Structures are given as C-alpha cells and as structure tokens.
Amino acid sequence: MTRQEKGLLAAVVVLTISVLVLGGLIGYRGLQPARDNGETGADSTDEESRAAAIIGDDTISEQEWVEELKKRYGKNTLLEMLNRKAIALEAKSRGIQVTQQEIQERLKKQMEGYVSEEAYYEEMQNQFGLSRDDLIVEAMYRISLEKIAVLGISIDDKQVDRYIKEHLDEYNSLKQMDLAWITVDNKSEAEDILDRLESGGDFAELAHTYSTDEFTRDNGGSLGWTDESDPFLPDTVMETARTLNVGESAGPVEVPDGYVIVYVRDIRTENTESPQEIRQEVRRELALQQAGPLDDLEQSLRSKYGAQITTDFPSS
C-alpha cells in the first residue's frame, strides 16, 4: 500500500466514525428532557408525534426517528462522546496542547490524492456531510489522543534511519501527469493533426473533432491524472509522455488500435514532504506502534475518569 493509499484509508476510517457520531448526536439531542419553559404534557406528546418525514400516506414521527437512531448509533455515540471528554481531561492534566500548525499538517496529509484543498473539502461535505469545522475538531481529537499515547516513548535516529531504508519506495517522490490524447486509425491522419497543432490548433477542439476514442473525445481527450508508470496505458504512450514538458504534445505514437497524439496538460509530484518532515512522520508512526491500540487507551481513560452509561438502549 502506498503512502497515498494509507492516507486516504485513514481519512475514510476517521470520517466514517465521525459520520456515526454526528448522525447519532441528532437522536441523542432529541432524547433530552424538555426544558421547564411552560410546555405542557400535550405539547410534549405533539412533539413526539410530529412528522419527521412523509412518504405517500405514511409518516415517520420524530419519536420513531429518534428511537431508530438511538438503537443503531446510540451506544457508539455515547462512547465517542465519553472518549472526547476523557481525552480532553487527560490532555489538560498532562499539559498537552494541539497547535494550529499540527492541525493543518494533519489535514494536509488527509488531502493527499485530491487535486486541491477545495476539492477535498467539497468531497468531505458532499460524501460525508462534514464541514471544515467538523474536520478540524476530529483532527484535534486524533492528535491529542496520539500525543497522550506516545508519552514516555522515545524513538532514536537509528530506528528512524532503519525504517526509512526498509521502506524507501514509500518515500520516493512520484511524478504524475495530467494527460490528454487523440486517437486515430492511421499515421497520416495523426501527422495531419500534429501539423494543425503546430499551427496553433486547440488540442481539445481537435480531439473532439477527430479522436476515435469515444470515452475521451467529448472531454478534450482528457485522461486525467496518471502515474508516470501507469500500467493501464500503452507503454509507448507513457514513454513518450515522460519526455514532454507541460503544454507539449508528441506523436504519432503507434498503439495496437492505431496511432496516438499525446499531450501533457500538467505535471505534479505527489510527495512534497521535506526530509525533516519525513523523519518526523516516521518517528510518530514508530512511537504509535510501540504505544499499542488507541482503542485500548480510550477505554482505559474512560475508566480512569469514571465514565458510565446510565441509559438503556432498544434491542437491535
């Protein structure tokens, strides 16, 4: 698994937990006793029977919705809430603080694999319903938990050096290219299109007009971001692309079904961490390995601060 894949996997796990917590909180808040503000018992009954959703002639009441949320997520949500209380108490007692820089660095790692910061936040909002503030709160919690976990654990330079040497391929920079192509049936047609490009023709327009690839021609021939060693594109195409700079095109490149003109729209390097940042990250990972499961730490801190769940939950 690459560093990018590990970063994305960790983000998904964290965000999935967050979704359960946030979803459950809706139900939990609905279970709180009514405040003494002059409401009558009838008002409370009306609140419980009020429709939360309607479909056809049927309704789903607020109370039905709340009970379903409580049944599905209630206990996990309470445990997550207790975890956050326990970690906050332990961090305060230990003088542990989380800086804005640490939060931004954590979010930056979670953004690996996204074309931009805005694309990351938009995806988290659309797919998980999580705002920037939600992500910041989750990052702060995870950092605090990890800092508590690694207290008293020391990782020396030799351990860091050995780990980097054993996992060297994970820390090599990976070149990625934003590629587009035009596919045609014969070489002479490809050469004619190249002449048009050299005369100032627009690649996207030419792809739309002449490309035989029905999957890319309506999108200007775009293949999207690809690794420089992408195994799903012909070797001849990737070999040519690796010789090009941004904004350059080349061909004709022979492929099994005809000929290709390849165009490099942009280039980026995935791993932008400095050697110092890499060593810091390795040191953190090694310390966490020695610390043991974070779930166990959460459980022990709940016990330390006397956490109790004093409500019952409906059976599944």
TrEMBL record:
The family database entries (Pfam families) matched by this protein are listed as: Rotamase
Q: What is its EC number?
A: 5.2.1.8
MF terms from GO for this chain are:
peptidyl-prolyl cis-trans isomerase activity
Q: Which InterPro entries match?
A: PPIase_dom_sf, PPIase_PpiC, PPIase_PpiC_CS, PrsA_foldase, Trigger_fact/SurA_dom_sf
Tell me where in this chain the PpiC domain is found.
Answer: 174-266
**PROSITE patterns named among the record's database cross-references:** PPIC_PPIASE_1, PPIC_PPIASE_2
Name listed for the protein in its UniProt record? peptidylprolyl isomerase
Species of the source: Paenibacillus zeirhizosphaerae
Record lineage:
Bacteria, Bacillati, Bacillota, Bacilli, Bacillales
